[in-house]
Amino acid sequence: MTERVTIIGSGPAGWTAAIYAARANLGPVVYEGAFNEDNRQKGTLPLGQLALTTEVENFPGFPAGDMTGYLDSSIDDGKRRYMAPHEKQGVSGPELMELMRQQAINFGAKVITDDIVELKLSERPFRVRSLSGTEFNTHAVIIATGARANYLGLASEDRFKNMGVSACAVCDGALPRFRNSPLVVVGGGDSAMEEATFLAKYASAVYIVHRRDEFRASKIMADRALNNEKIHVKWNSVIDEVLGDDENGVTGVRIRNVDDESQVEELGASGYFAAIGHTPNTDFLGNQLATSESGYVTWTQPPRTNTSVEGVFAAGDVADDRYKQAITAAGTGCAAALDAERWLADQGLE
Ligand SMILES: Cc1cc2nc3c(=O)[nH]c(=O)nc-3n(C[C@H](O)[C@H](O)[C@H](O)COP(=O)(O)OP(=O)(O)OC[C@H]3O[C@@H](n4cnc5c(N)ncnc54)[C@H](O)[C@@H]3O)c2cc1C
């Protein structure tokens, strides 16, 4: 059997694409990823990056308030039991993702809990293989596999995720725990400058910890950070440990000077932001699609979501190294479904 459209990925891009494709009667199949240790370690379990966070305050339509009744009535009872009790403050990441998934299922999307490990794009229909060994053909593919934030890999980073450790200032910077206290940003590229400058609006001070004596960031971005009186740079320094405890989460970091190992300093901070880039989830693609230098899938006719292979569309963070937000991922997920629908119609495959 040949699927009309296969959606790979289960973040806001994948579910939005599924909702639109299902409503267009394309009978989409969504591969949402597998629940396994490998995906847990990488941070790529089903439901995507938002499933790794607590509150989502900036997705339109979900103001703070008691969502309990709505969630109880809209999400499958079985699923609801696995979600953390709601704190009555708007929507949490896992809840928002379950709502999107349920909405896609309600319109008839078929969801398979498995990873796609191989996609052969050399001839149409495309050949797809999953981790559990299922093989099938598909006319169109929407790649919505997202990206994962890079961390330094310290055990202490892992321990305090959602308790002061973050990789997204725009997402988390305005949360109460990060306001009016010192924060730490690690990194030296454009995104570190952007995160530090953004956080300086809320924090009492921002320390950028950077392992070299100059930034990799563009001059304009670096100058903006360096000229901000709330931002201080710890040059030639690395993070040894994120400090904290179970009650307060992050309370600071211990940094070490790379030129003089004996120079160790503790910085008090209520938050630690890793700004050392993201890795798009594209391993299963081999080198079959054009990508940017940093490995993000390229849209060949922006703002359309077409990729370098006809019939393959990309949406969300896997093709976006700039905005990286749930709402932008959902927006391009919608666009990808519409692009796929039109392409299938042009091929006489609707
Ligand atoms: C901690 C944290 C907090 C955040 N908070 C916010 C916030 O408050 N507001 C906001 O707008 N944004 C937030 N973001 C960013 C937001 O989560 C992302 O921009 C958004 O989730 C990207 O959506 P996506 O659909 O592109 O993919 P992702 O959410 O990255 O999901 C893709 C998923 O697809 C699946 N997948 C990957 N490869 C395969 C494969 N080969 N086969 C099958 N499935 C696969 C995996 O389960 C993967 O996780 C946050 C991010 C993080 C990490």
Please give a structural write-up.
α1 (12-23) runs parallel beside α10 (326-346) and α8 packs parallel to α9. The mean pLDDT is 93. This protein has helices at residues 12-23, 37-42, 68-74, 77-80, 93-106, 155-159, 169-172, 190-199, 219-226, 326-346, and strands spanning 2-8, 29-31, 55-56, 91-92, 110-112, 116-120, 126-130, 135-143, 147-149, 165-166, 182-186, 205-209, 231-234, 237-245, 249-257, 264-268, 271-274, 278-280, 312-314. The longest helix has 21 residues, at 326-346. The chain folds into two domains: 2-149 and 278-346, FAD/NAD(P)-binding domain (3-Layer(bba) Sandwich), CATH 3.50.50; 155-274, FAD/NAD(P)-binding domain (3-Layer(bba) Sandwich). It has 350 residues and is an alpha/beta fold. The two termini are 15 Å apart. It has ten helices and 19 strands. Strands 1, 2, 5, 6, 7, 8 and 19 form a seven-stranded mixed beta sheet that branches. Bound molecules: flavin-adenine dinucleotide. Residues 8-14, 31-33, 44-46, 48-50, 52-53, 56, 58-59, 115-116, 144-147, 149, 166-168, 171, 281, 284, 316-318, 324-327, 329 line the site of flavin-adenine dinucleotide.
The rounded Rg comes to 21 Å
What CATH first level of the largest domain would be assigned? Alpha Beta
In DSSP terms (H or I, runs of 4 or more residues), the helix count works out at 10
Q: Could you describe the largest sheet, including whether it forms a barrel?
A: 7 strands, mixed
Q: Characterize the quaternary organization of these chains.
A: single chain
In the CATH hierarchy, what is the architecture of the largest domain at level 2? 3-Layer(bba) Sandwich
* Small molecules bound in the structure, each named once: flavin-adenine dinucleotide
Structural class: alpha/beta
> Any idea how many domains?
2
